[in-house]
Amino acid sequence: MFQAPSVFQRAPLPPATRESEPRHAQTLTATAPPPALGTSAPGAAAPAPAAAKKRDPYFDNVKYLAIVLVAVAHAWEPVMDGSRATRALYMIVYMFHMPAFILISGYFSRSFDMTAPKVKRLITSVAVPYLVFETAYSLFKRYADDSPDMAISLVDPFFLTWFLIALFIWRVTTPIWQAIRHPLPVALAIAMLASVSPDIGDDLDLQRVLQFLPFFVLGLLVKPEHFQLVRRREVRLLSLPLFAGALLFAYWAAPRMQLGWFYRANSAQEMGAPWWSGAVMTLAMFGCALVLTVGFLAWVPGRERWFTVLGAGTICGYLLHGFLIKGAEYAGLFDHYTWLSDPLGLVVVSLVAAVAVTLMCAPLVGRALKWATEPDMNWAFRKVSARR
Hints:
This protein is an all-alpha fold.
């Protein structure tokens, strides 16, 4: 396992305060940011050549490594039954991989407002991909899984498309979080109330939207210097015993704990737990996820690596890998080849998922899918004045 701006796009230098841009207009010069998409300063000089532009590759590395974890964890789901160790690893990965994505997404939404250029980017790079891939996944299940009754419902996200509609909602509410005095406590209170409210229903996956909300709001509050603190050597060293302890606890909890707590898609009552446990688990899961996210971010390399360029294509990796996982399920692959649940099979499944999502993040794939992930829809929008 996942824009205008979005966690999937290439990241600007940490000191920048504007949101990330689509790949074709996203790099920043070392001296000043470019004008907003769709605007140009009167009399401005021509933009500097691409070779003169530079970005901190850290966030591209974060996004690529996180999307690999998303894909691998999804691949484990059909084969981890019977393996306590795999279930424990799955629990750890699920504890922080989406919180990390959401926090980074919030970080690059700090400058979002409801101006026309940014609303345009939000629609073309979040809302449109949601509509396209929600429809595509529904049709894929209808025909590949022989489910003729599978409806195309734009208000009931299927599988992984929930993140796009959640991102849309979170970003639209960004001005609210930036206006109130104590945004994080308010977001946590909302998440706690959602976890004890079974009547919210499934529309737009609002349970997930509300229960994951604190991570997005935290991202809005994070500053570049916080990432510098996270990447200190002391934090990396402390994260080693942290992950070791988390693995031991997860191994103990694997047969005892419902996975629904990690998905955040249901209230406590819907999982058969006392209502008050929803509020308690919301706070506990937030704290655990935050600590593990910090440990993950501490070990992400800050320099360019062979996979840095793939960080720009995580939107494709996120949206495409689900077809691979679901296609294998619909074809009965995991039921037919039972050895995939063995230790060697789990390694094979993990490697195949990691390699596949890596290929899906390649620039060539991004260019081929640009019509769906970053469509040019100037025809649908009014021309915006440069002053706006």
